[in-house]
Write a sequence for this structure.
């Protein structure tokens, strides 16, 4: 069974967010990038577990980006991926990313395609579903548990007030979130091994985006905490009504 | 203890001097420290106990002897990688870094450098994983800065030698499975050998009551007519250069490690100074606090550049012992100063276990002393630039 794991890079969670070009572009100068945690901690680690348990035979990684994403994909290789593919174009648009991956993967016969539930920068959360559509495969989103037996995947996912468990025949696309696996830390042996693992660069299919970003806005700054005496209910109600406007 | 929010300072963009692999190694060890060391280390330091459970994790990540080649079980990384790993470990705690330093530089290094093929294959792979832990016996009760005067000695007894003497201030001794021991032969020449726990007459009593490196196990090595098989003796080196080469490797790691402790103190103090409000404003806004922080980041930046250059030289096998001495001495000095200034910034909170600073400060009193004291390293630099030996005797 061959698994393809979709990897995206995202700004480190401690990054100070700023924009350029009239607030139409993210200011990436000096930003440290990490593997999108949902891709790394859950999709990739579960794929590696499936390989270690003998269920999968190969774990390939795919990312869409220019050469500057290679450190991130090398880390994914250090964690244990067998080989990586970088589709050589730069886009943050889910349609372009899903279409480019589908274009690359459609004839390669992957039995399972895993991705994180969303990237932590643009938070669209739709690449997995789009990819399934373009590959004409079934899709289960926001998995919290994933097991494979034969060619059947058993997947749990959170629903309102409980949990749903689905079974589905492979091939299949699944987006993963917390619960699917536990985060792993690479080791020095893996980092050394990643030096020689294949990282193939393939030309992009040239998919054009369907949308453009008009502008970004920062959320309003958090206001300070206003302390109210414990016995002053009138003041509390008044402020909730007139300032916070929640009652 | 407060949540570990550490981010390394990089005022001169020193990261640009590192490879992507170096940064991945740093991120890896940092993630390990945040996950497995920071949450528990204060508790172990308070109760003066070594957290034995971390050995497995240190081995899995690859913190033991990272420069040892793959054929002997190591990952075969360069010396900057080793330095970065020690920096990140000591950022967590000097005692944890000491455990890894001893294992890598003082046990695995001499076995790799001076051991027979049989010794390398027997010990190195298990030392790399932490399945075996080692310690290093050079310092004696009456011979610290003057190791050449050591009294430990061995006599030929056919297929084995008989070892007598004692060693003191030995990190990892209480739990070590093996010990690399330096002692004089009958001609008075210093030789190295590997002792195994369980050899008759070999004991490792623990040293108690330390106010420093409290989360690290320290002890003595006592040799009472220990029969050591001759195949356990290193044949490729004789004289003081054997142990001194090990110390060069360990001092290199300390130069990076102590800087890690300094960076943690600075990071903690800077964050605290921005949050702590007195007289209606964050204390970071007062000139005396800014003086402390500005001097800290200046010292850290200079030391980052010194260490990086030393790493490049060591990778090219051009770093001299005197250059390593300078870096070790410098890092310990600035780290101690920074820890004290950082403690001042945190006021009363600085003395509690809620923050790492006081633990770092107490640890650094050992780090500035072991592997060559502050004054001895000064004399090494002095001798190197003048050509005149100012040591006693």
């Amino acid at each position: 069974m061959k698994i393809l794991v979709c990897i995206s890079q995202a700004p480190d969670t401690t990054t100070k967010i700023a924009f350029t070009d009239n607030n139409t572009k993210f200011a990436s100068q000096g930003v440290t990038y990490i593997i999108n945690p949902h891709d790394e901690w859950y999709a990739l680690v579960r794929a590696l577990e499936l390989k270690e348990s003998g269920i999968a035979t190969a774990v390939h990684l795919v990312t869409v980006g220019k050469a500057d994403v290679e450190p991130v994909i090398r880390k994914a290789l250090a964690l244990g991926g067998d080989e990586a593919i970088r589709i050589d174009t730069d886009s943050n648009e889910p349609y372009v990313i899903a279409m480019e991956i589908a274009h690359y993967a459609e004839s390669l016969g992957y039995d399972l395609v895993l991705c994180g539930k969303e990237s932590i920068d643009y938070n669209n959360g739709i690449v997995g579903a789009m990819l399934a559509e373009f590959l004409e495969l079934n899709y289960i989103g926001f998995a919290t548990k994933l097991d494979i037996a034969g060619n059947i995947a058993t997947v749990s996912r959170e629903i309102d007030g409980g949990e749903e468990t689905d079974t589905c025949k492979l091939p299949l696309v699944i987006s993963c979130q917390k619960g699917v696996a536990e985060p792993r830390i690479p080791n020095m042996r893996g980092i050394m091994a990643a030096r020689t693992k294949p990282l193939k660069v393939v030309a992009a299919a040239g998919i054009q985006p369907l949308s453009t970003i008009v502008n970004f806005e920062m959320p309003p700054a958090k206001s300070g905490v206003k302390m109210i005496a414990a016995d002053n209910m009138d003041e509390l109600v008044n402020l909730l009504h007139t300032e916070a406007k929640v009652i | 203890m407060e949540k570990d929010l550490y981010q390394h300072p990089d005022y001169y963009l020193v990261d640009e001097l590192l490879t992507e692999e170096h940064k991945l190694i740093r991120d890896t060890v940092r993630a390990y420290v945040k996950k497995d060391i920071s949450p528990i280390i204060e508790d172990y330091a308070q109760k003066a106990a070594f957290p034995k459970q971390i050995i497995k994790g240190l081995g899995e990540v690859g913190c033991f002897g990272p420069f040892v080649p793959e054929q002997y079980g190591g990952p075969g990384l360069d010396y900057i990688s080793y330095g970065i790993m020690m920096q990140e470990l000591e950022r967590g705690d000097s005692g944890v870094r000491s455990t890894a330093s001893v294992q890598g530089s003082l046990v695995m290094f001499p076995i790799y450098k001076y051991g027979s093929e049989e010794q390398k294959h027997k010990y190195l792979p298990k030392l790399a994983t932490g399945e075996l832990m080692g310690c290093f016996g050079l310092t004696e009760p009456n011979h610290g800065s003057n190791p050449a005067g050591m009294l430990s000695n061995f006599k030929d007894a056919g297929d084995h030698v008989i070892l007598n003497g004692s060693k003191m201030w030995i990190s990892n001794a209480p739990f070590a499975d093996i010990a690399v021991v330096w002692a004089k032969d009958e001609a008075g020449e210093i030789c190295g050998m590997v002792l195994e726990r369980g050899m008759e007459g070999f004991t490792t009593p623990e040293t108690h009551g330390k106010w420093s490196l409290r989360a690290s196990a320290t002890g003595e090595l006592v040799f009472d007519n220990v029969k050591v098989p001759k195949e356990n003796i290193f044949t490729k080196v004789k004289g003081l250069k054997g142990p001194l080469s090990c110390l060069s490797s360990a001092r290199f790691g300390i130069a990076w490690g102590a800087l890690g402790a300094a960076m943690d103190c600075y990071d903690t103090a800077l964050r605290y100074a921005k949050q702590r409000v007195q007289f209606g404003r964050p204390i970071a806004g007062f000139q005396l606090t800014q003086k402390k922080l500005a001097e800290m980041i200046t010292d850290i930046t200079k030391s980052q550049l010194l260490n990086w250059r030393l790493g490049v030289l060591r990778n090219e096998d051009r770093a001299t012992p005197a250059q390593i001495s300078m870096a070790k001495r410098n890092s310990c000095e600035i780290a101690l100063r920074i820890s004290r200034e950082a403690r001042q910034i945190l006021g009363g909170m600085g003395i509690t276990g809620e923050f790492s600073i006081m633990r770092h400060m107490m640890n650094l009193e050992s780090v500035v002393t072991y592997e060559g004291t502050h004054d001895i390293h000064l004399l090494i630099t002095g001798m190197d630039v003048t050509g005149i030996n100012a040591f006693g005797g």
